[in-house]
């Protein structure tokens, strides 16, 4: 018998769970949000926000140095940068987010949640256990945690994950980073800015394996220019730690460092959730359909969103899914008949179906140069059988680029479906390209013909003039 009952229970108060809870409560449902650590989750305290705070000083300095008349000779002020990071994370205090949760009428339950059966949960706290039940639905938004690969001695060597890197207090003189994905290369950039001697160890032969090859090549060149040693085709086989620091064996050589950061991927947090009581496998991602309902569960009461689904790995995409699941739950189980009818009839473009990841997932990497892409790369478009036409452009030719710096370097590339004349992917590499991505996302989602975009006049002198040049390069 449950001590307390709500219409909907959301497990996990990260950015994704907060949004799902907010939307689900909009048609009068009572909603509880369960969190066992800080409300706001990984993004607010150990991921997006602190990492960007750590990267911004180096980026601002590089931008100033690139402009005649504004060059400054100083290096990043590390303690001021860390103080700013502390502010951005609210000193790891979630009071602000808790008051928002309460202000929108959601009940916050502190504690670790695990299933005791369908719609039944046990919450554990230091003070004991409490049983809660959901009358209508449970939404799992428990996120993901860093994977420590099974390298001999690595786990015992107290490696850093992204949590220790983003909450760093003492910048190491020597840092080894394992992994050439987003987290590895962003943190390699930040710690190089802070004066660490960084070695980036990459198993494959390129950085950012999911992006266009030229993006990873540009970042690798830039990291080397920052003093980072980039090792491709390299794999740690053993790690030890002693009074001198950590020692990483790579084939027949050993790297000595003060810290080792593991950035080799993440796994869904489903192992301590009691999923076996529902006939699901602990440790695996929760597979969902486009309404975010977990597949293989009877009666349609269990939903999942965010990193825990393995379907998204960014806050923005997780929050999009959260808005969808919140609306689906509010419509199916709430008091609004019009919403119920709309959800029942929902098609692919409806706000009740999460379909963005079929065509238009945007990703920004805040390295120097920045890398931003959306939709298909050339390779994935070809794999999908699209009639591919690639339209590259050298951003340095734009007047807007020369305003940013006479030495601006950057590249943009569109992937067109030539048969339909529409854009299916875009990649931008260069300083200040992050904010250019959304125009491309709109074009991909809207399936806007390039010929029509010709009439969308970009302002002069901005980087957005690349859209004009794309048209000219494509023969318009
Ligand atoms: C270093 C780094 C930088 C990143 N930078 C970006 C970026 O710039 N932009 C971007 O879009 N994405 C970025 N990401 C990815 C982004 O952080 C994640 O996609 C996002 O945090 C996922 O949100 P979530 O709500 O699904 O999970 P989380 O943020 O992990 O939230 C899950 C919450 O559930 C709680 N929880 C888990 N299990 C239980 C339980 N059983 N009971 C109660 N509570 C529980 C956890 O304490 C946590 O608060 C970055 C990731 C990393 C590691």
Task: List key phrases describing it.
476 residues, alpha/beta, seven-stranded mixed β-sheet, five-stranded antiparallel β-sheet, binds flavin-adenine dinucleotide
Largest sheet: 7 strands, mixed
By secondary-structure content and strand pairing, the structural class works out as alpha/beta
Mean pLDDT across residues: 96
Note poorly predicted spans: none
Shape: globular
Bound molecules: flavin-adenine dinucleotide
- Strand % is 25-35%
Task: Please give the count of helices.
Answer: 15
What is the alpha-carbon Rg in Å? 24 Å
* Oligomeric state as shown: single chain
How would you describe what is shown here?
It is a single chain. By secondary structure, this protein is of the alpha/beta class. The protein is 30% helix and 25% strand. The protein contains 15 helices and 21 strands. The protein has helices at 15-24, 41-45, 48-65, 78-88, 95-103, 162-166, 182-193, 213-225, 315-333, 337-344, 378-383, 399-404, 437-446, 450-453, 466-473, and strands at 4-11, 31-35, 107-110, 112-117, 120-125, 128-140, 144-146, 174-178, 197-201, 229-231, 236-242, 245-250, 253-257, 259-262, 266-268, 302-304, 362-365, 370-375, 388-394, 411-417, 422-430. The strands form five sheets. Strands 1, 2, 3, 4, 5, 6 and 16 form a seven-stranded mixed sheet that branches. Helix 7 links the parallel strand 8 (174-178) and strand 9 (197-201). The longest helix is centred in the C-terminal third of the chain and has 19 residues, at 315-333. It is globular, with a radius of gyration of 24 Å. The mean pLDDT is 96. Flavin-adenine dinucleotide binds at residues 11-17, 34-37, 41-43, 47-48, 51-52, 112-113, 141-143, 162, 166, 183, 269, 273, 306-307, 313-316, 318.
């Amino acid at each position: 018998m449950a001590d307390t009952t709500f219409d909907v229970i959301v497990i996990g108060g990260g950015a994704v769970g907060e949004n799902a809870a907010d939307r689900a409560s909009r048609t009068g449902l009572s909603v509880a949000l369960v969190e066992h650590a800080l409300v706001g989750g990984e993004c607010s305290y150990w991921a997006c926000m602190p990492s960007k705070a750590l990267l911004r000083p180096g980026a601002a300095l590089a931008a100033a140095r690139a402009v005649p008349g504004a060059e400054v000779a100083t290096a990043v002020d590390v303690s001021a940068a860390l103080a700013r990071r502390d502010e951005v994370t609210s000193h790891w205090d979630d009071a602000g987010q808790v008051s928002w949760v309460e202000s929108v009428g959601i009940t916050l339950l502190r504690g670790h949640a695990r299933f005791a059966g369908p719609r039944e949960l046990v919450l554990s706290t230091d003070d004991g256990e409490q049983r809660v039940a959901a009358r209508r639905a449970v939404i799992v938004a428990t996120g993901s945690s860093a994977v420590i690969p099974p390298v001999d001695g690595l786990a015992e060597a107290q490696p850093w994950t992204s949590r220790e890197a983003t909450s760093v207090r003492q910048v190491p003189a020597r840092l080894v980073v394992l992994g050439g994905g987003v987290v590895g290369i962003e943190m390699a950039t930040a710690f190089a800015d802070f004066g660490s001697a960084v070695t980036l160890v990459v198993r494959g032969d390129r950085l950012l394996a999911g992006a266009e090859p030229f993006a990873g090549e540009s970042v690798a060149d830039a990291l080397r220019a920052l003093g980072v040693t980039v090792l491709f085709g390299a794999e740690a086989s053993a790690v030890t730690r002693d009074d001198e620091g950590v020692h990483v064996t790579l084939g027949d050589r050993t790297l000595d460092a003060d810290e080792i950061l593991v950035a080799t991927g993440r796994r869904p947090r489903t192992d301590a959730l009691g999923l076996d009581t529902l006939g699901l496998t602990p440790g695996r991602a929760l597979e969902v359909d486009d309404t975010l309902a977990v597949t293989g569960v009877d009666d349609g009461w269990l939903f999942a969103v965010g990193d825990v689904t393995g379907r998204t790995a960014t806050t923005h995409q997780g929050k999009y899914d959260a808005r969808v699941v919140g609306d689906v739950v509010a419509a199916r189980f709430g008091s609004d008949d019009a919403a119920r009818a709309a959800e029942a009839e929902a098609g692919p473009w409806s706000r009740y179906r999460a379909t963005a990841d079929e065509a238009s997932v945007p990703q920004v990497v805040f390295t120097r140069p920045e890398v931003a892409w959306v939709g298909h790369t050339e390779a994935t478009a070809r794999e999908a059988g699209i009639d591919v036409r690639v339209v590259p452009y050298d951003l340095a030719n734009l007047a807007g680029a020369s305003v940013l710096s006479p030495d601006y370097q950057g590249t943009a590339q569109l992937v067109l479906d030539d048969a339909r004349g529409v854009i299916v992917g875009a990649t931008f590499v260069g300083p200040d390209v992050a904010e250019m991505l959304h125009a491309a996302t709109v074009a991909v989602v809207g399936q806007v013909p390039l010929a029509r975009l010709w009439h969308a006049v970009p302002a002069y002198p901005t980087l957005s003039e690349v859209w004009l040049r794309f048209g000219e390069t494509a023969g318009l």
